[in-house]
Each structure stands twice: as structure tokens, then as C-alpha cells.
Amino acid sequence: MADNAEFVSGTQVKTAFVKIHGAGVRPVLYVEIDGRARAEGCLDLGPTQEVEATSRQIRENAAATVAGFQTFGVGIKELRFRWPDKTVPYTIAPNLPNQNRMTDAIAHWHEKTKIKFVQRTDQDDFVTFRPGSGCSSSVGRQEGQQFVTLGPDCTTGNCIHEIGHTVGLWHEQSRRDRDLFVRVHLENVMPGMEHNFTQHLNDGIDLGTYDYASIMHYPKNAFSKDGSATIEPVFGQTEIGQRLGLSAGDIKAVEELYKAAAT
Ligand SMILES: [Zn+2]
């Protein structure tokens, strides 16, 4: 079912340290899928080897600091960058099936926001839409080629969500104020998948107010062991986790994010 395509799980949960823009170093739990580190079901942290190498550097740097040696910043790729001129160059893997999912998702972003997708010519930084397991994307612009992965079950709606990550949005329920708005039922979560709810993996900038209608919000049964609710709104009978289109709040969040967009 399409709603579950973002919530793929690996067999072994590992810890890495990553540097998150504005929030310093954080431990992140991830699973390995197709050789890449994936957190919160659909956040692509990069090739596992690179993530582990960066993590080792951070650990060694910390050890050196404790030992009193002078240390220098390690060149860690930050997780969040904005796209210059709100423009995202892209390519499509020729073997990606059902490409209209992607072109429809891009058309939706063009209709609702000022983000522009252009076919890549010679740009260094670009995103490639490709087939794979589940749906995933890294958060914000990385250096060089990055991916939006679309498994067979990923819909246009899922793709709109993944593009949200690509342009720099985190999951709505990873906001700092989320515990005021949602209740998490860890007892209903698949064993071993609790980390997808317990870590608040974002850079600490909450854009606008908490938005139940966000396409970036987990649905009620994300990572559920038996279909029962794992995350529920505190207020009212509001639906969460829609994958139809950007909400008014999402559109505003993107505007805010790119208001002071760096080049
Ligand atoms: Zn996601």
C-alpha cells in the first residue's frame, strides 16, 4: 500500500553521528537499505560507508578534544542546504518505471511554489529520480549527485513528499514542539522501529505553526506492528499523513525556508 512505501525497515539498527546545520552533532539511528543509511523510513543520509566515516571522524575529534589536543573542524557535509535561485536541476534514471508519478509531482510543486525544477545540463549539484526500495530522499541540497528513490509502490503523493525533503523540509512531527500536538504510542510500533519516533531529527527551526495537514507528517499507522495507531493528534479527530498535495502550511514553510535563501 502506497502509504507504507515511505516506512520501509531494515533488519539492523545502527547509530551514527551526523552534523546537522544549526544544531551541532547528533546521534542518529538508521537502517541500511541498498548500501545507504536511511532514517525515519525515508530520509537518505548517504552511502553507509560515508556516513560511518564521517561518524568516526566526529568521534575521533571529540576524543581529541577531551584529551586536550587542539582540534580543527572536520569537513562534514551538513544535512541541510537550500537550492540557489530556488532551482533544482534533475535527471531521470532511464529505468525508472511510471515516470508520470514524478512529472506530476514536479508539476504540483511548480503550481504551488516558486521552486523550479529544470533538466540538468552541466550543474554540479543535482537530483536523480531512480527506482529502488521504498521511497526516500536526502534533506536539502547535498554536494554533487543526490537521489530521490521511488519504489514500485510510491505514488505521485509520495513523490511530492520526497521532493519536500529534497528542497529542505523535515518530517512535520520532528518539530521541537511536536509533543504538544501529537501523542506517540510506542507500544504499537514494530519492535526495533521505535527510533523513528523518539529522535527529533531536524535542525531546530520550526517554520510556522504545527500543521496536521502537512504532506510531511507521518500517517497515524506509520511503522505500526498491526495497523493500530502509532501517532495521534492531541486535538480533535484531525486526519494526519495525507499524501495528496502540499498543504497551505507546507507552501508557507517553503516560502519561509527560501525567503533568506543563500546562494
Ligand atoms: Zn519522509
Instruction: Tell me the structural class.
Output: alpha/beta
What is the number of independent domains? 2
Tell me the overall shape. Answer: globular
* CATH topology (fold) name of the largest domain: Collagenase (Catalytic Domain)
The arrangement of helices and strands along the chain is EEEEHEHEEEEHEHEH
> Assembly type of the shown chains?
single chain
* Number of helices, counting only DSSP H or I runs of 4 residues or more: 5
CATH C-level label of the largest domain = Alpha Beta
The chain-level mean pLDDT equals: 86
Tell how many strands the DSSP assignment holds: 11
Strand order in space, largest sheet: 6-5-7-9-8
Largest sheet: 5 strands, mixed
**Which small-molecule ligands are present, each listed once?**
zinc ion
Low-confidence segments: 69-79
Provide structural commentary.
- Keywords: Hydrolase, Metal-binding, Metalloprotease, Protease, Zinc.
- Its cofactor is Zn(2+).
- A hairpin with a 7-residue loop joins strand 8 (about 135) and strand 9 (about 145-150).
- This protein has 2 domains: about 1-70, no CATH class; about 75-260, Collagenase (Catalytic Domain).
- The strands form 3 sheets. The chain has a 5-stranded mixed β-sheet with strand order 6-5-7-9-8, with helices on one face. A 4-stranded antiparallel β-sheet has the order 1-2-3-4, with helices on one face.
- Helix content is about 25%, strand content about 20%.
- With about 260 residues, it is α/β, with parallel strands linked by helices.
- Zinc ion binds near residues 161 and 171.
- Zinc ion binds next to helix 3.
